[in-house]
Design goal:
Oligomer: single chain
Bound molecules: zinc ion
CATH topology: TIM Barrel
Strand content: 15-25%
Structural class: alpha/beta
CATH class: Alpha Beta
Strand order of the largest sheet: 8-5-4-3-2-1-10-9
CATH superfamily: Aldolase class I
Shape: globular
Number of strands: 10
Largest sheet: 8 strands, parallel
Number of helices: 11
Length: 284
């Protein structure tokens, strides 16, 4: 199939109350693991790139490998730019063929966040590119966005409604207490706030900071409107562990393809585990 944007896949997921996994990739091998795992389970999937990963490889290399894998696949695949503050990079990704982008102006004052998000929607919509916007501060470290724990704040409900009603983004990421990176202790999720938002808006919500949440929390958030579920940190660990564990077990063997295979298997297992939890198996 050709690359799709997130609109149809997220609207269907929101309606049927399952989550579409949005997995952060690092290279060709991890992209292949995500797409083929989704295909094994007949699940729609979102390939997500951090701004850092885009800058590292360049847009041309990434779009080539993602397009090829998507075209050979029987499941819908979207290519989404995760947390991006840089409008020029967003434009580069749109020009290169990304089908979806996120503008993260959540660290700016509300009015500025609104106007930057509007600017990106105006850039993307004529090209049929979907846009995710964020409001509130999601704690943790994501790329170069550092939000100190004490500065983290949950989304303001009035502002959330204003943002969604005036901008009509394709996907809305409210800060509800989840965090990027690894949780220290049990996360406190503001389910009441999530429920309040999703009962008043009909826009699919994105759940950030998925790594480390319990199955129960995932299911509850998805039931309350989170149609896009982000997984990044878990895949970073799978990537490194796949390499290190293989080398530890075969420390005299220097066969890079076997190492790549081991990484692939770890990544594929992680993606399969998450798709099953999110309920998107068989939804392609
Ligand atoms: Zn995030």
């Amino acid at each position: 199939m050709s690359l799709e944007n997130m609109k149809a896949m997220l609207n269907k997921a929101a309606e049927q109350k399952y989550g579409v996994g949005a997995f952060n990739i690092l290279d060709y091998n991890s992209t292949k693991a995500v797409v083929l795992a989704a295909e094994k389970l007949k699940a729609p999937v979102i390939i997500q790139t951090s701004a850092k990963t885009v800058i590292y490889w360049g847009t041309k290399a990434i779009i080539n490998w993602v397009k090829e894998l998507a075209e050979e696949s029987k499941v819908p695949v979207a290519l989404h730019l995760d947390h991006c503050k840089d409008l020029a990079l967003i434009q580069d990704c749109i020009n290169a063929g990304w089908t979806s982008v996120m503008i993260d102006a959540s660290s700016k004052p509300f009015e500025e966040n609104l106007s930057l998000s509007r600017e990106v929607i105006d850039m993307a919509r004529p090209e049929d590119i979907t846009v995710e916007v964020e409001l509130g501060a999601i704690v943790g470290v994501e790329d170069d966005i550092h939000v100190k724990e004490q500065d983290a704040h949950l989304v303001n409900i009035e502002q959330a409604l204003e943002m969604c009603f005036t901008l009509r983004p394709d996907c809305f990421a409210p800060a509800i207490g989840t965090a990027h990176g690894l949780y220290k202790g049990t996360p406190k999720i503001a389910f009441d706030l999530l429920e309040n938002i999703s009962s008043q808006i009909d826009i699919p919500l994105a759940l950030h900071g998925g790594t480390g949440l319990s199955v129960e929390v995932f299911k509850k958030c998805i039931a309350l409107g989170c149609a896009k579920v982000n997984i990044s940190t878990q895949l970073k660990y799978a990537h490194i562990d796949g390499f290190v564990n293989y080398h530890k077990a075969h420390d005299t063997e220097y066969n890079p393809l076997k190492v790549i295979d081991s990484q692939y298997k770890k990544l594929e297992d992680a993606v399969i585990e998450n798709i099953k939890i999110f309920g998107s198996e068989g939804k392609a």
